Amino acid sequence: MADHRARGHVRDQPHRPDRRAVWLGTNNGLPWLPGWSNLPGLAPLLPLPVPRFTGILDAVPGTGGDVICGAGVGGTSLVYAGMLPQPSEEAFAAVFPSQVPYAELAAEHYPRALRRLRASPIPDDILAHERYTSTRTYLRYAQEAGASRTERLNLCYDWDVIRAELAGTAVPSASAGEYLWGVNSGAKLSVDRTYLAQAEATGRVTVKPLHVVTDVSAQPRGGYTVECQRIDEAGNTLERVRVLCDAVVFAAGATHTPELLVRARDIGTLPRLNEHVGTGFGTNGDRFIVLTGLPEPTLSRQGGPPGFLARDVPTPHGAVSMFHVPLPMPFETRSMVLLGMGKPNGFGTFHHNPLTGQVERHWPADGDQAAGLATKHLADRLARAAGGGIALEVGAVRQFTVHPVGGAVLGTACDLYGRLHGHPGLYCLDGSLIPGSTGLVNPALTIAAITERCLDTILTHDLRTVF
Ligand SMILES: Cc1cc2nc3c(=O)[nH]c(=O)nc-3n(C[C@H](O)[C@H](O)[C@H](O)COP(=O)(O)OP(=O)(O)OC[C@H]3O[C@@H](n4cnc5c(N)ncnc54)[C@H](O)[C@@H]3O)c2cc1C
Question: Residue 106 CB: number of other CB atoms within 10 A?
Answer without folding.
Answer: 15
